[in-house]
From TrEMBL:
Taxonomic path: Eukaryota, Metazoa, Ecdysozoa, Arthropoda, Hexapoda
Superkingdom per UniProt: Eukaryota
Name of this protein: Spermatogenesis-associated protein 17
Keywords on record: Repeat
Gene3D superfamilies cross-referenced by the UniProt entry: 1.20.5.190
InterPro entries named in the record: CellDiv_DevSignal_Domain, IQ_motif_EF-hand-BS, P-loop_NTPase
PANTHER family per record: MYOSIN MOTOR DOMAIN-CONTAINING PROTEIN
Pfam families, A to Z: IQ
Length: 205
């Protein structure tokens, strides 16, 4: 190698060194990126496995907790049913005892025949009272009808006096006559039964 070729060799060597450094940097970046990707993948896998494990454990805990709560509820339900059964039994027995005691006390303190006679006497008094009330009501109704008849009689005589000339005659029918028959109607029978002369005599008095 000549003296003139030494600088070129140094320069080419330096250029090769720079290229090697650049390649080394690129390789380092690729390794770093690959390491990051591997770490990300591993972390994701570990996280998913951890979450899956936590979910499984949570499910197990929930299952045990539900079982525990269910057993507690069943125990409470059984206890309540037992208490209710006991209360119903004691209530039934108390009712039976009360019924027996009432029967015993009634038989001891009450005379059946005296009670029956008293009820018959009360029934007779009630029937007599009802009969008297019916008689009183009938008497009041008869008295009211008599008073009404006495009050209406002068008006009936007055109206009969005013309307007696409307009676049917042999020549013409009256205004209260039924054209289909020659018999008096009810109003005409009342007017015909009225004694005009007697009314005038009483009126003059």
């Amino acid at each position: 190698m000549t003296r003139l070729a030494v600088p070129e060799f140094i320069e080419s060597t330096q250029e090769k060194i720079r290229k090697l450094k650049v390649e080394e940097n690129n390789l380092r970046r690729k390794k770093h990126a690959a390491a990051i990707k591997i770490q990300k993948t591993v972390r994701g896998w570990m996280t998913r496995n951890h979450l899956k494990m936590l979910k499984k454990k949570a499910t197990t805990i929930q299952r045990y907790w539900r079982g525990y709560k269910g057993r507690l509820q069943v125990a409470e339900f059984v206890e309540k049913m037992y208490q209710r059964m006991v209360e119903n039994y004691y209530q039934k027995m108390a009712t039976r005892i009360q019924a027996l005691w009432r029967g015993y006390w009634s038989r001891k303190t009450m005379n059946y025949y005296e009670k029956k006679a008293w009820l018959k006497s009360v029934e007779a008094v009630n029937e007599d009272t009802l009969r008297k009330m019916r008689e009183l009501r009938m008497a009041e109704e008869a008295l009211a009808a008599k008073d009404m008849e006495d009050e209406l009689e002068p008006w009936l005589h007055y109206m009969a006096n005013k309307l007696h000339h409307f009676l049917r005659t042999t020549v013409r029918p009256g205004i209260y006559s039924d054209p289909k028959t020659t018999e008096y109607t009810e109003i005409e029978r009342f007017l015909a039964s009225y004694q005009y002369r007697g009314f005038m005599t009483d009126l003059r008095r």
